[in-house]
Amino acid sequence: MRRRFVVLAFLVGMAVASCSRDAQSLPFSVIPQPSEVTLVGGGYDLKSSDLILSDNLDEKVKSAIAEFAEHLQTVAGGRNRVISGEDGRGVVFLVDPSLGNEAYRLDITKNKAIVAANSYNGFIYALQTIGQMLPAEFYGRERASGVDFVIPCGTIKDAPRFSYRGVLIDVGRHFYSVDEIKRCLDIMSVYKENVFHWHLTEDQGWRMEIKKYPLLTELGSLRHGTQIDFDRTHLRPEDHGGFYTQDEMRDVVAYAAKRGITVIPELDLPGHMLSALAAYPELGCTGGPYEVANTWGVKKDVLCVGKEETFTFLEDVLTEMMDIFPSKYINIGGDEVPKDRWNACPRCRAKMKELGLYDHDGHTAAQYLQNYVTARIQKFLNDHGRRIIGWEEILEGDLAEGATVMTWKGTGENVDSRLWNYDCIMSPRGYMYIDRYQSHEQDREPFSIGAYLPVENVYGYEPYDGVPEYGKKRILGVQANLWTEYVNTPEYLEYMLLPRLAALSEVQWVQEGHKDWERFRKALDHSAAIYDEMGLTYCKYAWGIVGLPENAQPARTPEELQKYLDSRN
Ligand code: ACM
Ligand code: ZN
User: Fold this and answer.
1) Phi and psi of 77, rounded to 5°?
2) Under a CB-based contact definition with an 8 Å cutoff, are residues 440 and 452 in contact?
3) Which of 150, 189, 433, 472 gives 20 to 30 Å between its CA and that of 197?
4) So what's the pLDDT on residue 27?
5) Please, are residues 305 and 317 in contact by the beta-carbon 8 Å criterion?
6) Dihedral, CA atoms, 369, 371, 376, 381, nearest 10 degrees?
7) Among residues of the chain, what percentage have pLDDT more than 90?
8) Alpha carbon 321 to chain centroid distance?
């Protein structure tokens, strides 16, 4: 594979060196870099090209192509007819049954282009590649005059390395509107990322409407005040709230699906549940009263699992979630569950006794109690045709087969080796926690959770490092996580995502050993132009500029914080 790549890279170089002027002026800056690229010189003008649909395309694919044509007409100002057939001058879309899921092929000559795929995602990825081969103005909303909408001639064969290519956004710590979430989905789709992990419940806010439990959103979505730096007594006094109605969540699911993205919702249980406890205190071990958290950090109050009512609650919530989210997987959290309350709670202790749980093999009875919770929820979801994903902690003690584990602490070198007995998704915080600073000039960046994770470090992650051969087969993919304790405006949210999602996409998509930082860094200039066209805020440190742009809504910096605290004295 490496050998073939080297040969191709050589051919590409030759092609560029020997081709006509117009081909030389057509850069190739597609992120993630496709598997095989052979450019032969010259270009194909899409401006008034017909888009030709072969008979066996399904309706969903046809409508994606029609939307592409409509958008192309808007920005290029030509006429792009969408017609049926197999032949003729134009871009011909064909089903090729020999291509794998998500794969596609482009054959582009001066007179004609062929787009072949064997799945919805394959076709939309082909369209994304075409989009990125065009000038960045393609990603704008208006007619771009004086721009040639020409793509380079040649052949591209492409397929992803991993099937799970995820991005998590935490809307619990800070709520983001449906429109903002859609902007995030738009940029994920540019990078062929295909899972939106929607972290919908947190100690600091419950964000999804559950009809059977209206207080979850009436009370649990609102917190009084927000911690603004590392001192838990420093609070911005205003309330913070917001939630999604079920219709809004369905709208997001449909919007994502059109972009080839599956929404996997997370119900983080049995910890990170203070917002639910604030609404329904009877679900806790002490009975409360509880308040939606307005400070960060791990909270000791978790669901009481010695009560059957807790399981009724969870199953009811999951039942409504399954009705909204058609995803094969539901993420059930499982991270950071302090066992203090369970160890002190008569009901939880009785449950441990009833189940015969005791400390052994390096794990406590209470950790085994968490296994019991995980297994019950897993069975419930499996009985409804779904599967669970949970954070790394679900491995502690005994995890039932069939669970998928999402790492967040460990890389291949340092995770619990039992991980490799399960399907897993790698999101180690050292590379994949995109809530960290992106520059060394942190006092000029908006205040963040700390640490340092620039775009090149995200790019440098190799998921197979330290993984035994048999474990490699269990890695479904890679995910970056954007926790939002301090990420409090849409501009700041986008700033944290970009350009790190670009680097992430190459970790997720490009075959082992084929990433190339120098090539990627050059291509990133084109991505930046795309962000500008899309009106997205991004971190410009790679271009020598530190911090949020002037026009972005300011987040709280340490100086602002000081001013704020002074004003209270
Ligand atoms: C996590 O960072 N607690 C998953
Ligand atoms: Zn209890």
Assistant:
1) 80, 10
2) yes
3) 472
4) 80
5) no
6) 150
7) 89
8) 19
d(CA 198, CA 266): 6
Cα(363)–Cα(375) distance, integer angstroms: 17
- C-alpha of residue 304 to centroid of ligand 1, in Å: 21
Asked if pLDDT for residue 555 goes beyond 80, the answer is no
Residue-averaged pLDDT of the chain: 93
Both tokens of residue 421? 């007995």
Give the per-residue pLDDT at 26: 73
Distance 397 CA to ligand 2 centre (A): 19
pTM above 0.85, yes or no: yes
Q: Are strands 404-407 and 423-426 parallel, antiparallel or unpaired?
A: parallel
> Which ligand has its closest atom nearest to the C-alpha of 296?
1
Neighbours of ion ligand 2 (CB under 5 A): 285, 304, 306, 345, 347-348
**pLDDT 10s digits, 60-73:** 999 999 999 999 99
Would you say how long the chain is, in residues?
569
Ligand lying closest to the C-alpha of residue 202: 1
Determine the pLDDT at residue 9.
Answer: 38
pLDDT average, residue stretch 284-305: 98
Return the residue whose CA atom lies nearest to atom 3 of ligand 1.
335
Nearest to 329 by CA among 383, 406, 386: 386
Report the alpha-carbon angle 257-150-130, nearest 5: 20
Question: Lowest-confidence range among 28-37, 86-95, 461-470?
Answer: 86-95
Of 319, 434, 339, 470, which Cα lies nearest the Cα of 396?
339
Indicate the SS3 state at residue 180.
Answer: helix
Q: CB 28: neighbour CB atoms within 10 A? A: 21
Binding-site residues, ligand 1, Cβ < 6 A: 335-336, 391, 408
Q: Give the containing element (helix H, strand E) for 220.
A: none
Strand pairing report for 164-170 and 387-391: unpaired
* Edge-first strand listing for the sheet containing 90-95: 36-45, 150-158, 104-108, 112-117, 90-95, 51-53, 82-84
* Beta-bridge partners for 83: 52
Atom of ligand 1 nearest to the CA of 406: 4
Other CB atoms within 10 A of residue 387 CB = 15
For residue 335, give the ligand 1 atom closest to its CA: 3
Angstrom distance (rounded) from CA 447 to CA 437: 8
Q: Which candidate, 128, 2, 155, 31, places its Cα nearest to that of 508?
A: 31
> Which among 102, 104, 100 is positioned nearest to 91, based on CA atoms?
104
Q: How far apart are CA 333 and CA 298, in angstroms?
A: 14
Q: What is the DSSP letter of 244?
A: B
Q: What is the mean pLDDT of residues 275-288?
A: 98
Is the pLDDT at 20 greater than 60, yes or no?
A: no
Q: Which ligand minimizes its atom distance to the CA of 352? A: 2
> Looking at the predicted structure, is the pLDDT value of residue 276 above 60?
yes
The Cα angle at residue 286 between residues 284 and 291, in degrees rounded to 5: 65
Task: State the average pLDDT over residues 421-448.
Answer: 95
